[in-house]
C-alpha cells in the first residue's frame, strides 16, 4: 500500500482531498494528512476573526472522512528527503511514498528589530485569536497600528474600525499610496473609504524598529497600544530549512509538473511554491488540481503532459467592513456593495460546497 502524505490542510491540501476522495484514489494508495489543527481554516477570513466580527465557527471547515484517510495532528519538525520520512516534533516519524508539502507561510519581519517580539499577527488562527483578545480588551480611544497596507492590512484596518469605531487606527504603508499593486481607481476608492471613516494612513513609512507599545517610523517614535504586522510573508520554517533550490523569496523551485527537480515523488503546493503569481488561496487550489492529475498519471504509469495549462486566476476581492468592498474580477475593477456581496457569496460556496 502506497502512502501519500500531505503536509498541511490548507487550501491546496483540502482541494486535493476533495479531488481524490471518495472516488478517485487508487485502491493501493492511502492518504495521511498532517496538520496541527483538527480542521481546515479559512485563512482569507482571519482578519475578521482578529477584529472580532466573526467567531471561530465561521472559519472552520471539517476535513473529509474516509477509511483511506488518516489524519495525524501535530507539528512537523523536519522533512528527511533521503529517507523519505517526515519527522514530527513529538518524536514520531511518518514515512511516505509520495509527499505534498503545503505548510503555508509565516510573517516576514525584514530584520526589523523587535518586530517578532512586540507585534501581533493574523497569519494563523491561533495568532488571530490572540490579536482579537488584545484588540477587544483595549480601552476607549486606544491606538491600533497596522504595519502593511496590502490586502490583509486593508481588510484588517477596515474591519477593526467598523467593529471598534472608538479606536484610533493607523495604517502604515511603504508606498506612495495603499494597494499599489491594484489599479489607481481601486486605491483611491479604498483611500477614500478610510478617510471618511477616520482611519489614518501613513504613506512612505519605514518601520526601523519596534519596542513594547512603540513603533518607530523613520526613527520617529509612535505610541501604539497594539501593533499588528501584515507587512510580508515567507515560507514556513520547515521549508526554509530544506536543502533544495529556492527563488529569491525563499520559495521552492519546481518543475513544470510541480515536483522537486531532484525528486519526482515530492511536490510543493501553495505559499511555499515558486510560481509566477503572488501566493493566494485561488492559486493553491489551481495548483492542487494539477498535482492530483500528475499523481494519478504516475500511479497509472502514464506519460506526463509536455506542458500544463496556465492556472487561471479569476481575480481578487477585498472587504471594507461588512457592506463595502473592492476587487478585480476578470481584469475589471469593481467597488462598493457588489464587490462585498461577491466575496461573501464565494466564501459561502467554498464553505458549504467544497469550493
TrEMBL record:
Its cofactor is FAD. Keywords: FAD, Flavoprotein, Oxidoreductase. This is NADH dehydrogenase. One of its GO terms (biological process) is aerobic electron transport chain. GO terms for molecular function: NAD(P)H dehydrogenase (quinone) activity. Residues 3-282 form the FAD/NAD(P)-binding domain. InterPro entries: FAD/NAD-bd_sf (IPR036188), FAD/NAD-binding_dom (IPR023753), NADH-Q_oxidoreductase (IPR051169). It comes from the Bacteria. Belongs to the NADH dehydrogenase family. The keyword Transmembrane does not apply.
Amino acid at each position: 500500500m502506497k502512502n501519500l502524505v500531505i503536509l498541511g490542510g490548507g487550501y491546496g491540501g483540502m482541494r486535493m482531498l476533495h479531488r481524490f476522495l471518495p472516488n478517485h484514489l487508487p485502491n493501493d494508495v492511502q492518504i495521511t494528512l498532517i496538520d496541527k489543527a483538527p480542521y481546515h481554516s479559512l485563512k482569507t477570513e482571519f482578519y475578521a476573526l482578529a477584529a472580532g466580527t466573526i467567531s471561530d465557527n465561521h472559519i472552520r471547515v471539517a476535513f473529509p472522512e474516509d477509511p483511506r484517510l488518516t489524519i495525524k495532528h501535530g507539528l512537523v519538525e523536519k522533512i528527511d528527503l533521503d529517507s523519505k520520512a517526515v519527522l514530527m516534533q513529538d518524536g514520531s516519524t511518518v514515512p511516505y511514498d509520495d509527499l505534498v508539502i503545503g505548510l503555508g507561510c509565516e510573517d516576514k519581519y525584514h530584520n526589523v528589530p523587535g518586530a517578532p517580539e512586540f507585534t501581533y499577527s493574523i497569519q494563523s488562527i491561533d495568532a488571530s485569536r490572540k490579536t482579537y483578545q488584545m484588540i477587544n480588551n483595549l480601552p476607549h480611544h486606544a491606538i491600533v497600528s497596522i504595519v502593511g497596507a496590502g490586502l490583509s492590512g486593508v481588510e484588517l484596518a477596515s474591519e477593526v474600525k467598523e467593529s471598534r469605531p472608538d479606536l484610533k487606527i493607523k495604517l502604515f504603508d511603504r508606498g506612495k499610496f495603499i494597494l499599489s499593486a491594484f489599479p489607481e481607481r481601486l486605491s483611491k476608492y479604498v483611500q477614500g473609504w478610510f478617510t471618511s471613516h477616520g482611519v489614518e494612513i501613513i504613506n512612505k513609512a519605514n518601520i526601523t524598529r519596534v519596542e513594547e507599545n512603540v513603533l518607530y517610523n523613520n526613527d520617529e517614535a509612535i505610541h501604539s497600544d497594539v501593533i499588528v504586522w501584515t507587512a510580508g510573508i515567507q515560507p514556513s520554517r520547515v521549508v526554509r530549512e530544506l536543502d533544495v533550490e529556492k527563488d529569491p523569496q525563499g520559495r521552492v523551485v519546481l518543475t513544470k509538473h510541480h515536483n522537486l527537480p531532484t525528486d519526482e515523488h515530492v511536490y510543493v503546493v501553495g505559499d511555499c511554491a515558486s510560481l509566477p503569481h503572488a501566493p493566494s488561496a485561488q492559486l493553491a487550489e489551481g495548483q492542487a488540481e494539477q498535482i492530483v492529475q500528475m499523481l494519478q498519471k504516475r500511479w497509472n504509469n502514464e506519460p506526463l503532459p509536455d506542458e500544463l495549462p496556465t492556472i487561471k486566476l479569476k481575480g481578487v476581492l477585498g472587504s471594507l467592513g461588512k457592506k463595502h468592498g473592492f476587487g478585480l474580477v476578470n481584469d475589471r475593477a469593481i467597488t462598493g456593495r457588489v464587490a462585498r456581496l461577491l466575496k461573501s457569496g464565494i466564501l459561502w460556496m467554498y464553505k458549504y460546497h467544497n469550493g
